Write a sequence for this structure.
C-alpha cells in the first residue's frame, strides 16, 4: 500500500475511533437503550377498549443503564414518571436473551398502583443501543485493519531479513542489463521496453558480481542497504539541491552522487552558464531535482565505462537461473527486484557492470580484493569504490600514480594502484583515530585538487560534501587567500547549508593553540582538520554555526 494512501486510511480510522469514543460516552449516560410500550390492563378491561380506543391506555417506557422514564396512560392522559435503576448488566446481558419473554421490562414496569395493573405491550432496542453497537463494530474493524497492516509489515521485514526481498509491490519491469546511458532513479515504478536491448543476468554474472562486492557468494546486503535510495529534500528550500543520506554504509555512495549533483547544478548543467550564487541551489524545482539526479548518475556510469558505454541494471519479475549450493539466494540479485526500493543497490550494480568485472579486477591490487568491507555488522565502501565513482577507475589507494617499490626500495610483487587522473570532484580524508595510530593515508594532489571546487569528504568515517561556487578557486592562487566553502553532511539534523570562511594568510590558527585539557573535538573540530589537509594552517570561521562532527 502506498505511503500516502496508508496515511489517509489511518487518519480516517483514527477520526472514526475518536468520534465513536465520544458517541459511546454520551450514549452510556442516556435512557434510550431500550424503549417499549406498556398497557394499562385494568383500565382497558373496565371499558372493554379495542382498536383506536386501546391507544388511550398504552403508555411509553424507556430506560438505559442508570435511569429511565415511564409515561402511564389509563384513558385520562399521560403521566410521566422518572425512575432510577442499575440495570447495565440487565440491558447488556439479560435483555439480549430475554427480550421476547418480557421479563426485564416487567421487573421495571409491572408494580401495583392502586387497583391498576400494567403489562408490557411491546419493547425494542433504542438508538443508544444501536449507536454503541455501531461504535464497537467500528473499533473492531479498526483493530482488524491495524493487525492486518502489522502482519504485512512483519512478513515484509522477515522476507527482507531472510531472503533479501524488500521491494514494494508495483509495476514491474523486465530484468536486463542494457547499454543505455540515461538513468532516472527517482524511486517510482519504471516500465522498460525490450526494444532497448539487453541480456538477462546469468549464474556466472551474479556470482562474479557477489565476489567483486563481498569477496564471496555467500554475503548479501543487509536491511540498511536495501532501504537506501536517492531522496531529495523539499524543493525550493535551503536544501532543495540535497539528498538525504542514510547512516549505514550506503551513505558514501549517496554523498558521492550528491557531489556530482552539485557539479551539475553549479557548473555543467546550464548550457555552459555557471551559477556562482548559492541562491541558485535553493531554487531547485522537483523537475530540476530529477534532471540533476539523472545527469549525476549517468555521468558516473559513463565515466566508469571509459566514455564508451554505460550499463543500467533494470528490474524483473522472473529469475533467470537456478541457484546452486555455492550461491546464497537473496531473491534480489536474481531479479533486480524493484527500481524504487533498492535505488542505491541498483546503481551500484549498474556501476560495476559499466566498469565490467574484468576491468575492475585490473584496477584492484593485493590490498583490496573486493569493493565492500564488513565492519560492525554492516558493509562499508572501500576506497576503490569511492575512487570508481570519482575518477571512473577503482583505484584502491589515494596517492598519485602507481607504486612499484616498497619502503626499502625492493620491487613489489604487484604494484600498488593509485589515482592517475584529476577528476571533476575531489576527495579529502581525515580520521582522528587513524591519525593517533599513525595510519591516516595522505591524499595525493590528483584528488586534493580536482578540476572543480567540490570535494567528497571522509571525516571520521562519515561522508560530507564541501564545495565552492567559485570555479577559479583552484586555478587562481589569489582566490585562495580568503574564500567561502559550503558544507553539507547529508544528515536529517542539518536544515541549512553551513557557510565556512577560510583564511589562509592571517595565521589566526596555529596547531599548538589548543594544547591543554578538554575535548579534542571542541579544540580541533574534525571538519576544520579535514580542510587543513588541503589548506594547511588555515583559519576557519563557522559564521555563527556551532562546529559539529
Amino acid at each position: 500500500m502506498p505511503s500516502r494512501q496508508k496515511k489517509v486510511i489511518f487518519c480516517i480510522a483514527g477520526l472514526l475511533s475518536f468520534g465513536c469514543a465520544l458517541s459511546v460516552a454520551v450514549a452510556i449516560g442516556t435512557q434510550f437503550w431500550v424503549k417499549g410500550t406498556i398497557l394499562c390492563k385494568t383500565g382497558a378491561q373496565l371499558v372493554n377498549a379495542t382498536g383506536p380506543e386501546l391507544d388511550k391506555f398504552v403508555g411509553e417506557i424507556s430506560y438505559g443503564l442508570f435511569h429511565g422514564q415511564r409515561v402511564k396512560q389509563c384513558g385520562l392522559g399521560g403521566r410521566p414518571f422518572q425512575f432510577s435503576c442499575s440495570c447495565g448488566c440487565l440491558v447488556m446481558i439479560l435483555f439480549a436473551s430475554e427480550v421476547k419473554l418480557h421479563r426485564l421490562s416487567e421487573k421495571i414496569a409491572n408494580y401495583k398502583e392502586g387497583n391498576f395493573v400494567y403489562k408490557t405491550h411491546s419493547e425494542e432496542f433504542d438508538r443508544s443501543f444501536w449507536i454503541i453497537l455501531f461504535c464497537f463494530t467500528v473499533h473492531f474493524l479498526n483493530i482488524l485493519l491495524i493487525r492486518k497492516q502489522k502482519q504485512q509489515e512483519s512478513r515484509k521485514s522477515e522476507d527482507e531479513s531472510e531472503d533479501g526481498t524488500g521491494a514494494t509491490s508495483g509495476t514491474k519491469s523486465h530484468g536486463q542489463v542494457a547499454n543505455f546511458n540515461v538513468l532516472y532513479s527517482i524511486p517510482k515504478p519504471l516500465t522498460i521496453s525490450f526494444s532497448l536491448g539487453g541480456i538477462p543476468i546469468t549464474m556466472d554474472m551474479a556470482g562474479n558480481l557477489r565476489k567483486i562486492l563481498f569477496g564471496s557468494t555467500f554475503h548479501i546486503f543487509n536491511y540498511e542497504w536495501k532501504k537506501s535510495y536517492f531522496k531529495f529534500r523539499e524543493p525550493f528550500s535551503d536544501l532543495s539541491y540535497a539528498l538525504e543520506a542514510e547512516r549505514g554504509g550506503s551513505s558514501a555512495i549517496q554523498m558521492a552522487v550528491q557531489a556530482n549533483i552539485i557539479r551539475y547544478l553549479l557548473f555543467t548543467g546550464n548550457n555552459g552558464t555557471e551559477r556562482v550564487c548559492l541562491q541558485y541551489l535553493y531554487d531547485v524545482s522537483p523537475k530540476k531535482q530529477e534532471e540533476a539526479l539523472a545527469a549525476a548518475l549517468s555521468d558516473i556510469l559513463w565515466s566508469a565505462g571509459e566514455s564508451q558505454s554505460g550499463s543500467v541494471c533494470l528490474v524483473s519479475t522472473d529469475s533467470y537461473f537456478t541457484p546452486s549450493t555455492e550461491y546464497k539466494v537473496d531473491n534480489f540479485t536474481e531479479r533486480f527486484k524493484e527500481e524504487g526500493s533498492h535505488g542505491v543497490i541498483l546503481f551500484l550494480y549498474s556501476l560495476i557492470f559499466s566498469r565490467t568485472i574484468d576491468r575492475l579486477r585490473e584496477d584492484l591490487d593485493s590490498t583490496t580484493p573486493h569493493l565492500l568491507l564488513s565492519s560492525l555488522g554492516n558493509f562499508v565502501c572501500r576506497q576503490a569504490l569511492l575512487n570508481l565513482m570519482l575518477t571512473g577507475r577503482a583505484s584502491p589507494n589515494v596517492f598519485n600514480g602507481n607504486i612499484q617499490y616498497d619502503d626499502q626500495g625492493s620491487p613489489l610483487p604487484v604494484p600498488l594502484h593509485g589515482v592517475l587522473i584529476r577528476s571533476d570532484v575531489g576527495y579529502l580524508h581525515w580520521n582522528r583515530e587513524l591519525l593517533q595510530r599513525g595510519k591516516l593515508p595522505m591524499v595525493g594532489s590528483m584528488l586534493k585538487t580536482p578540476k572543480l571546487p567540490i570535494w567528497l569528504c571522509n571525516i571520521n568515517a562519515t561522508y560530507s560534501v564541501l564545495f565552492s561556487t567559485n570555479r577559479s578557486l583552484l586555478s587562481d592562487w589569489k582566490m585562495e587567500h580568503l574564500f567561502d566553502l559550503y558544507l553539507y553532511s547529508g544528515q536529517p539534523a542539518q536544515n541549512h547549508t553551513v557557510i565556512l570562511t577560510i583564511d589562509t594568510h592571517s595565521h589566526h590558527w596555529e596547531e599548538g593553540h589548543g594544547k591543554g585539557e578538554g575535548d579534542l573535538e571542541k579544540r580541533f573540530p574534525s571538519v576544520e582538520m579535514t580542510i587543513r589537509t588541503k589548506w594547511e594552517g588555515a583559519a576557519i570561521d563557522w559564521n555563527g554555526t556551532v562546529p559539529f562532527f
Observations:
- Residues 3-24+132-163 form one domain.
